[in-house]
């Protein structure tokens, strides 16, 4: 078992168990995210771009507006428009103005975006299995439950 104090070379005790838990969650998330980004980097996209594509795949042919994509992302991004601009330049999404309100732009995943996600589906599942292999299903369900309860309070 890893000791967070040792990992981050902290010599003083944490001020509270809450601080230690917070830092442990942040440290673990950063490590999981870094390894995930490294694993998909050869496919030419980042973890955030992967997440946006996953969101748009889930939306189906109807698509979503920029704010709906932004709100469904796992991690907040400062500029969803730039994120979508990059995905559009890569040919992975398309955007279309519709109706009388020209400000409303529908974003849809393209066939190339769907093909990329299909190519990544199994490797991504393998990454998740490998990263979380040391935890039992019961432990993982407990983590999911506790973190969900904490997010509901935020």
Task: Draw up the topology in text.
Layout lengths: L3 H4 L9 H24 L6 H13 L4 E2 H7 L7 H10 L3 E5 L7 E5 L1 H21 L5 H17 L1
Antiparallel strand pairs: 1-3, 2-3
Helix pairs in contact: 2-6
Describe it for me?
The structure is a single chain. This protein has 154 residues and is mainly alpha-helical. It has helices spanning 4-7, 17-40, 47-59, 66-72, 80-89, 111-131, 137-153; strands at residues 64-65, 93-97, 105-109. It has seven helices and three strands. The protein has a three-stranded antiparallel sheet. α2 packs across α6 (111-131). The longest helix is centred in the N-terminal third of the chain and has 24 residues, at 17-40.
Q: Give the integer mean of the pLDDT values.
A: 93
Counting structural domains, the number is 1
Low-confidence stretches: none
CATH class: Mainly Alpha
**What is the radius of gyration?**
19 Å
Give the CA-based shape.
Answer: elongated
From the N-terminal CA to the C-terminal CA, the straight-line distance is 29 Å
| Helical segment count | 7
Would you identify the CATH H-level superfamily? Answer: Winged helix-like DNA-binding domain superfamily/Winged helix DNA-binding domain
Tell me the major beta sheet: 3 strands, antiparallel
How would you classify the helix and strand content by structural class? mainly alpha
Which strand order spans the largest sheet, edge to edge or round the barrel? 1-3-2
Would you identify the CATH architecture?
A: Orthogonal Bundle
Predict the CATH topology: Arc Repressor Mutant, subunit A
Sequence of secondary-structure elements: HHHEHHEEHH
Number of strands: 3
Helix content range: 55-70%
Q: Strand-residue fraction? A: 5-15%
